Every structure is written in structure tokens, then in C-alpha cells.
Amino acid sequence: MRGRTLSAGIALAVFAGMTVPLAAQPATASPPTATTVTRPIAASAAALAAPDISITNVQAHLTQFNAIATSNGGNRRAGSAGYTASLNYVKTRLQSAGYTVSEQYCSSCRYPSNNLIAEWPGGPADQVVMFGAHLDGVSAGPGINDNATGSSTLLENALVLAAQNPTVTKRVRFAWWTDEEQGLNGSRFYVNSLSATQRGYIKGYYNFDMVGSTNGGYFINRVTSTTAAPLKAYWDSLGLQPEENVEGQGRSDDYYFQQAGIPTSGYAAGASARKTSAQAAKWGGTANSAYDPCYHRSCDTTANVSATVLNRAADGVAYALWQLAVGGGTPTCTGGQVVANGGFESGSTPWTASSGVITNASGQPARTGSYKAWLNGFGTTRTESLSQSVTLPAGCSTYTLSFWLHIDTAETTSSTAYDRLTVQAGSTTLATYSNLNAATGYVQRSLNVGAFAGQTVTLRFTGTEDSSLQTTFVIDDVTLQAS
Q1: Is 84 left (phi over 0), alpha (psi -120 to 50) or beta?
Q2: What pLDDT digit, counting tens, does each position of 194-233 carry?
Q3: Is the Cα torsion angle 208, 209, 211, 217 positive or negative in sign?
Q4: Which ranges constitute the DSSP H helices of 49-148?
Q5: Is 459 helix (H, G, I), strand (E, B) or coil?
Q6: How confident is the model over 320-341, as pLDDT tens digits?
Q7: Which of 8, 117, 118, 167 is the most buried (most CB within 10 A)?
């Protein structure tokens, strides 16, 4: 981000438990084996499901940019060898993926060099959604948070779009700008090169500048605007309570698009401004410290990036892109129950479970009906699992995962978790229970899983037991309701 401001123009409630009489799982139960059952996915939901952007892949791009800077005098300043190598890295990946890629020479830039523009084929040419980030850094360092994070986020989103190749309802255009740090010169040159008609084709420009700050916040440009709605919807689904990007106003490449009458928005995680106490309470981090302690310094390396903040930005870009250009706008909530056979009364389908987990054995009662999922209770080292692939429809207001859990244990400690039940959606751990949470009877557990709206994920329960003193985890009446 440019340094000088321009003038105007599934954690669940945990219950302390008590030790109760035990009904251990029969010792004769056969060893766990998995039976895989695949649940059909509705075509309409699959078409709208935004992909989960791999943070590992985004970080790999950061590593490449850092190596480029190291090999070229320690920086990627516009017009330098480091900038040219950065542009070539992005360009080569995009061309291999099938993009129409062009370079635009910015003759009026302080350091004359090229913008990079990539367009995905398909969609009406007069209905463009555009995503941009500046590719250059300052001369003081490799410029990884500022702004390899934005550049890498867009590159990986572009590659995923190409790999999935969905039918698009709008033309998708990506841009990597030069000479931003010297006065937003690359993006200004591009906007000035467009005719009035061409500017009118761009229905929204989305800018991503510094989206991985280590003490970062969650900021959105023009947060209350219609253009910002899909970006905000995704972060709202994570409970992040994003704020207006006050620090970044007029300081990044959305400025000249906005001045030209093009609707704009974008994500940012903050630069040299300091996090307030209220923001630290809401988002974590350190109050009264800069969002990015290495802003425009030599320490702005791959070590100067929060993977959590960056991952949330990358996935938010994908969500917005899919809503704007794949789903054809904000989808209508289809609602309803997402989990099938949540009471386990219809056999194992479509669950995947370790052998014997879905059972009507009398040692532990079901909450309703005759069947339940009974994990562990052997008193020996053992891991058992229960899972189902689910598709959460996009466009709903609430997404609530609910299940009833009964925990018995022979453990006598009140301080050590020996045996555990982990609840996950995809690779995200939503909740962990243990022998410390034993309680009489079933307790209902509920949580918001709106972060996975529009996605297909595997809902998984995994029970692990150590070598002695059993703990039993019994699950029944699982629901995931979208409305």
C-alpha cells in the first residue's frame, strides 16, 4: 500500500462433567473398518459452491516472491529486475492455465514498467467483474505482506477458477499493477486508457492490498456499499464483524476506479495504523500496536504474514467471485435439512463409519429411536470415526449444526483430558470434547457453520482413547439446518 494519503476526489459450550456409572462398549466389538458411502450432490448447489482456496498454495506463491526479491537486490520495486521477475512468474502461471494475458506499458509511471491484465474467456464482454492487486513493493524489502499477499491471493483464485472452469455469467478480469508505491501510477494509467464505454463495462472493481498483516484487522473498502456485500457476507459468516478501511482510503489502486465512477470494494488487514483495544478484543492481537509491524521495512518477508488472516481473505475472494460471476448474483436460499439420516435409523447410508459405530446395542440407549453412533468405550488405545459429506446451500441467513452428545467415562481425573472427541468440518476443527466433559444423559450442542456456505465439506466426528480407563461418546439426532 502506498504510504501517503491522496487528497479527496464449531466452538460449542463445554459442560463440566461428573463421573457416572458406566456402560462400557462390548469388548467383543470387531476392529474398526471404514465403509465409504458417497452422498449425491445437487447440481444446483454444486454449481454455486465456492471453492476452498488452499492457503498452502497461496503461501507457496509468497515463497516464490520472497525468493525473487532475494535474487534481485532484496526488493521487487516497480521497474526493477525483481518486479520484472515477479510479473513473469504470474504471467507464466496464468498463460499455462488458459488465460488471455496482456502487458500494458505504463509510460507515465515514475518507474516505467508493465501492468499485467488477465481475462478468463467466457461471459459477456460488457459485464465485467475485476479483481486487482499491486505487484510492486518498496525498495526497502521484499514486500511480502505489502503486497505479495494480495498478488498471491488473486493468482491462486485465478488458477482455481481456471481449474474448475465453471460456466460464468460475467467476464472475470484480474490485474496486477505496477508503480503503486510511487503514487498509484499503474492503475491510474490503466483507468485513463479506458474509453467511457469500456469503463461502463466494469460493474465492480475489487482491490486487495495487504491482506495478511500479522496484527491485522478485517477491513473492507466501502463496507456498507452494495459492491462490498459479497465480501462482507463471507466475513460476516465467520463472525468477524469487519470494519470500514479508513486507513486505506485513497491509498491504493481502487482510488482511480472510484474516481472514474466504477463501483469499488476490497479487503485489507491494515498497515502502520495501530489496533485499538476494541479491535483487539474483537479480533485478537495486540492493542496499540501496528497492524503490520514491518510495513515498508526490510522485515516484510514471508515471516511477516498471518496465515489465518490471509486464508480468510483468499476464501472471501473466492466466495465473492463465485457469487458475482458464477452464481449470477446472490443466490436464493434453498434452505432445509442438510444432514441425511441424522438419527441413524435408516442404516449406515450416507454415513461413513468405523465398524460397529452405528448400532442399536443396548449398552447405551439412543436418545430417540433405537440407533445411535457409539464411539469408543473400550478402555484401550483406539480411534473411531463417523463422517458424512454435506453440501451447504449458498445464500441462507443461518447455518446451524446441532447434535445430542452423551459422554460416560471411567477416568477419575478432573484436570487431564485423556480421551477426546473431535468435531470437524473439512479440515477445520469445530469443537473438542473429552472425559472432562462427562455428564448425565444427552446434552444438545449447536454452532454456526455459516463459514462453509456454498461449499461441500465432510462433517466428521473422531473419537480417540488412550490405553486405559474407557470414555464413551454417544451421538444422536444430528442436524444441519440452513434457513
Answers
A1: alpha
A2: 999 999 999 999 999 999 999 999 999 999 888 999 999 9
A3: negative
A4: 55-71, 81-97
A5: strand
A6: 999 999 975 445 567 788 999 9
A7: 118
Give the whole-angstrom CA distance, residue 291 versus residue 53.
24
> For the domain that residue 217 is a member of, what is the CATH number?
3.40.630.10
| Among candidate residues 218, 221, 216, 240, the one with its CA nearest the CA of residue 294 | 216
| Cα–Cα distance measured from residue 205 to residue 184, given in angstroms and rounded to the nearest whole number | 15
Q: What is the pTM of this model?
A: 0.63
Helix, strand, coil share (%) of the chain residues, nearest 5: 25, 25, 45
Across the chain, how many H-helices and E-strands are there? 10, 20
**Catalytic center residues:** 180
Nearest-angstrom CA–CA distance, 457 and 425:
6
Query: How far apart are the C-alpha atoms of 149 and 209, rounded to whole Å?
Result: 7
- Give the domain CATH number at 360: 2.60.120.260
CB 465 within 8 A of CB 419: yes
pLDDT tens digits, 47-69: 347 999 999 999 999 999 999 99
One domain, residues 318 and 345? no
Q: What is the DSSP letter of 303?
A: G
239 occurs within a structural domain:
yes
Which of these, 124, 134, 209, 122, lies nearest to 161 by C-alpha position? 122
Task: List beta partners, residue 77.
Answer: 137
346 within some domain: yes
Q: What is the dihedral of CA 165, 171, 174, 179, to 10 degrees?
A: 170
Distance CA(452)–CA(229), nearest Å, equals: 17
Cα(15)–Cα(342) distance, rounded to whole angstroms? 23
d(CA 1, CA 483): 39
Whether residues 272 and 160 fall in one domain:
yes
- Residues with Cβ within 8 Å of 115's Cβ and at least 6 positions away in sequence, in order, are 103, 104, 106, 175, 176, 177, 178, 186, 187, 189, 190
Parent domain of 413: 34-39+340-482
Rounded to whole angstroms, what are the CA distances from 286 to 216, 275, 336?
9, 7, 41
d(CA 382, CA 389): 24
DSSP 8-state secondary structure symbol assigned to residue 214: T
Q: Which of 104, 101, 108, 327 is nearest to 194 (CA)?
A: 104
Task: Verify that 302 and 353 share a domain, yes or no.
Answer: no
Domain count within the chain: 2
